[in-house]
Structure formats: structure tokens, C-alpha cells
Design a protein that fits this description.
mainly alpha; about 60% helix; globular
């Protein structure tokens, strides 16, 4: 986590969220950066919450994959910034789906989902168990 040293960057990152083009990856990277800053980015939580459902706002199938990255980044960021927020359960579900739908063995793609789920704490344990069981079924020969 970047922590307090990066706190001064939070207002600029929040401003970027309103103008970033999600297809250029700036949006998901900016949101994930807020998560990497951690609790010191708490001012960003109200701005991040709408991005949890961002994927559902995109109807174009070709753009849905990039929109999913935005929703996943928002889930990770919320879990890392404020794991006790009311939206933590929604974030846990998104991260669990990320674990369930990956087709490769454990890769770097899993790391944000795992970190986010573990920061939510006990409430995420059933979600993690379910995700891992589904992933195991997917990878069995």
C-alpha cells in the first residue's frame, strides 16, 4: 500500500475519475491506485461507489470487458480503503466473480481480488470459499 505519502494525490485522482476514458485503461488504473493508497483515500469512497455497477451500464459487448475492469477496480479500491463500508458486500461479490471466471491458474489477475476480499474480513470468507470451490471445479481435468 502507498499509504499516507500518497494522500496528497487523492484529490487529483478523484478529478481524473470524472474525465478519464475507461477504454484507455486510465479509469480502472486510477481507481486501483486509490485502493493502493488505502484508508488515506477515504474521501474517494463516494466517488468510487457508482463504479461498482459500471459494467452494467455498458450495452456494447465489445466494451463490456473494459467496463468489467472498472467495476473490479472499484471493488478492490473499496475493500482496501474502507472494508466496513455498506457496499463491501457488493464489492466482495464482484471480486468473487473475478476469482470464479478466471481460466488460468493463479496469476497476477487474482491478486487484487484476493487482497480485497481478505481486507473485508470474516464477511468475505463464505464468498472466498465458494469462489475457490468453483475455480477448482473449472480447473479439474
Amino acid at each position: 500500500m502507498m499509504g499516507p505519502k500518497a494522500k496528497d494525490a487523492v484529490p487529483a485522482i478523484i478529478a481524473l475519475l470524472s474525465v478519464a476514458d475507461f477504454e484507455s485503461m486510465e479509469l480502472s488504473e486510477a481507481i486501483q491506485t486509490l485502493g493502493n493508497i488505502g484508508p488515506d483515500a477515504k474521501d474517494a469512497v463516494p466517488v468510487i461507489i457508482p463504479f461498482l455497477k459500471f459494467e452494467k451500464t455498458i450495452n456494447d459487448e465489445q466494451r463490456k470487458g473494459l467496463a468489467h475492469l472498472v467495476s473490479s477496480a472499484a471493488a478492490y479500491a473499496l475493500a482496501m480503503i474502507d472494508p466496513s463500508c455498506a457496499e463491501a458486500a457488493d464489492a466482495a461479490q464482484i471480486m468473487a466473480m473475478d476469482l470464479k471466471t478466471k481460466t488460468a491458474a493463479i496469476t497476477l489477475d487474482y491478486i487484487p481480488a484476493i487482497k480485497g476480499l481478505t481486507s473485508i474480513g470474516d464477511g468475505a470468507i463464505p464468498v472466498m470459499i465458494d469462489a475457490y470451490q468453483d475455480a477448482n471445479e473449472l480447473h479439474r481435468p
